[in-house]
Beta-galactosidase (Candidatus Fimenecus excrementigallinarum), 596 residues
Amino acid sequence: MLTIEKGRFRLDGKPFSVYAGAMHYFRVPREHWADRLEKLKAAGFNTVETYVCWNLHEPRPGQFDFSGGLDLAAYLREAARQGLYAIVRPGPYICAEWDFGGFPAWLLKDENMRLRCNYPPYLAAVRRYYEALAGELRPLLAKNGGNVLMLQVENEYGSYGNDHAYLEAVRQIMLDVGLDELLFTSDGDCDWMLSGGGLPDVLKVMNFGSRAKTLLKKLDRYQKDRPYMCGEFWCGWFDHWGDVHHTRPSQQVAGEIQDFLDMDASFNMYMFHGGTNFGFTAGANYGKGYEPTVTSYDYSALLNEWGGYTAAYHSVRRLLCEKQGIELTRLPDEPKLQAPGTVRLTEAAPLFENLDVLGETHETASPRSMEAFGQNFGYILYSVTVRGRYEAARLRVEGVHDNAYLYIDGDLKATYYRTDNPKREENDGFSVRLPAFSGEKRIDILVEAMGRVNYGPHLYDRKGLRRVALGNQELFGFTVRTLPFERLDGLRFEKPGRKDGPRFLRGTFDAKTDADTFADMRGFQKGCVFVNGFNLGRYWARGPQATLYVPRGLLRETGNELIVFEQEGTDRDGVPLLDHPILDMPKKRWYQFFRK
């Protein structure tokens, strides 16, 4: 077990420094776990750190999934086989640039829900989650002979609130269910964060991207005779759609690691390997406005998105191995990459002609959020017919989260992106002038959820839309279709016709099964891509990401199916599969907190 004595970590009674690297099992295909963990060990790290994603483990209240790529216990056992200890950060909130910070969307079905505070209905859900999680983790705790040395209480709570009764309640739940290994809290380097986010008798660690020798000493104000530890050393950063791709020089990363080693301090490198926000799992920030995160979580990590070595990997490896007297032996192989050619999209299935096979239909007086209908991710369609005699007036669509396409009698009349309307929050929306008419007008509003806010005060980020009005008259009597795109096998495909409008495009291809590839989405506008039924994630012509990572485990030698959901229209009739990624980088930058 890991203990603290005289200001130092001790493992089974011997001095120990935690050299951890973050790698989230839910962002890495299971068939790649062993390879990535082996590369972590080969770089001189002794510990792997991972968050736990509550939202994927409990997609419906009381329905838990710890199978396949969500088998956390299998991931930790594989780490043990590689000779690695583990740090587990179970939340319930994780941030992580992950949809809703890891919270399950169904929490927002309750209009009165209060998150991350001492609110009984919320804590009851947290307890149920921890009880299920404990069944997976208890056998793997160090005290039970496993490799899990540390568990985190909440996550960067001081950046959000100061409800210490809530923090104590989370800790008590963890103890009640048997998750009683060495506990810690982690917060940013500001005093208000450390003050709000800690508990008196729980180890505090600090998160930052530079200046370790200065910042770690701030911990002395809050605890005595405790080891210095950085809970997240940010070696890079994440990207938003429409922004630049972030990188960081390898020599700068190595210089920061040298500072930790000089201080005999422990650290967790965030990220060692970032992986991918597959499907609709990427979250969003709300700073200068709504800022959704891209599909790639490359993070300028030591291993890139597909598991390849970077210059920073080799620089950090030399430092860690020299510090510990580890011989530099031959590294595991680089990932194999392939370029199978262009997938010709020979069939199309228009969205509006396939609504019956894509989701459920609901009748509601007024628009309600996705969460109200039990929908976690994807798209939602609101339809209403206005009958009577109407003068010309403005049609107002309010509370749009996040992108909307307005159709009047089947014709596209307006497109709205929440990202283009900074600081509007509750009034997110748009309006169009509707000419006078007598009879009826059919109004359809397709809304795309781009990722729930994962950090800060805007967590209550319900998706869909809130209100539709014509002039001063609020509209009622909506038909709502939830479109989570969880299954596409019922789509009715035909030969491609029109190039515009939301539609699914399909093609087939052959490939090797021992090499990864990348889908080149340049020339497409906006949507998502499926390979053999698996959702690779979102693309957007705004960049910076232009390709989507296709892991080899998805591929068959023949007859692979590729489906593009293009929601705005394209002239492209094929998707090239490349042996390299493409990132649009108009400039490089790294944030100020990376600088000394």
